[in-house]
Amino acid sequence: MTIAIFANPLRSETLRELKRVLEYMQQRDVKVVLSHELHQEPFGRDYASVDEYTENSDERIDFAISIGGDGTFLTTASLIGHLDVPILGINCGHLGFLAEVQTTNTEEILEQLINHQYTIEKRSMLEISCPAIDKILSPYALNEVAVLKQGLSSMISVDTYLNGEFLHTYKADGLLLATPTGSTAYNLSVGGPLLYPYARAMVLSPVATHSLSVRPLVIPDDSKIDLKINSRNASYMVSIDGRSQIFDDDITLHIERAQRTIKLVQVQGHSFVQSLKDKLGWGK
């Protein structure tokens, strides 16, 4: 078995957890590949079964482990999403809806992983296309695609078309389209609804809208969205799971459900309902 591990090397708590995982894998004779930054850490070369992750590693990876918060998990998904391998998230961050495994029981969870005592959840993604798509690191989003005003500039106007039919012109700081997985992220912070991970839906949520009558809208996940943005400074920002790029406002965006999915490792004793209770304090 070969496992790829990704983490933020700038956080000391993450590196401590990484060493803990490496020591456990060494005892179980599991092959590990580390991202370049992690492999350069002094301890990254202390384990005989550890290699550096390269494109040549793709064909032999069985699992991926993300150590950190949900941001690290999203980065991991963007790097290896094309491999269609399951990802396990170990939480060294805060809320952690994607990185669910707590560091208090890491060894127990790793044992379940090695012994195949888990289930796989397939999470839907979004794909964005436009004439300037080559400027984007990855056009796929596990959480959301957001169009936003730049800095302190005035709000933007977003002409929104749903399956080719004009829906509304949102006058706001921005507009985001979130997957069910992303409904607990940026969407939640702007007052959007929570969606169950398996719901065949996505949600359009305005950011700081100018009109009190405008509310988030849940739409079928086979919908096709086209966005035409108007801005006073003739540009706007596109954020794909936090990866940002500035576009000219003569560029129209097309967004729809991607053909690919992301596989999440669901270990024993964890569920979306349990996460809601733990993370949001429901039922307490």
Overview of this protein structure:
The chain is of the alpha/beta class and 284 residues long. The model has no long low-confidence stretch (mean pLDDT 89). The protein is built from six helices and 18 strands. Helices cover 19% and strands 39% of the residues. The strands form three sheets. It has a six-stranded parallel β-sheet with strand order 3-2-1-4-5-6, sandwiched between helices. A six-stranded antiparallel β-sheet has the order 8-7-18-15-10-11. It has a six-stranded antiparallel β-sheet with strand order 14-13-12-9-16-17, with no helix packed on it. It folds into two domains: 2-117 and 268-280, Rossmann fold (3-Layer(aba) Sandwich); 125-260, Probable inorganic polyphosphate/atp-NAD kinase, domain 2 (Tumour Suppressor Smad4, Sandwich).
Summarize the SSE layout with pairings.
Blueprint (H helix, E strand, L loop, with lengths): L1 E6 L4 H16 L3 E4 L1 H4 L10 E3 L10 E6 L1 H11 L6 E5 L9 E2 L3 H9 L3 E12 L10 E2 L2 E5 L7 E7 L2 E8 L1 E5 L7 H4 L11 E7 L9 E4 L3 E7 L4 E6 L2 E6 L4 E15 L4 H9 L4
Parallel strand pairs: 1-2, 1-4, 2-3, 4-5, 5-6
Antiparallel strand pairs: 7-8, 7-18, 9-12, 9-16, 10-11, 10-15, 12-13, 13-14, 15-18, 16-17
Helices, by number, come to: 6
Backbone structural class: alpha/beta
Mean pLDDT metric: 89
Stretches where pLDDT falls below 50 for ≥5 residues? none
User: CATH top level of the largest domain?
Assistant: Mainly Beta
Distance between the termini: 41 Å
Radius of gyration: 20 Å
Shape, please? Answer: globular
Major beta sheet summary: 6 strands, parallel
Helix content class = 10-25%
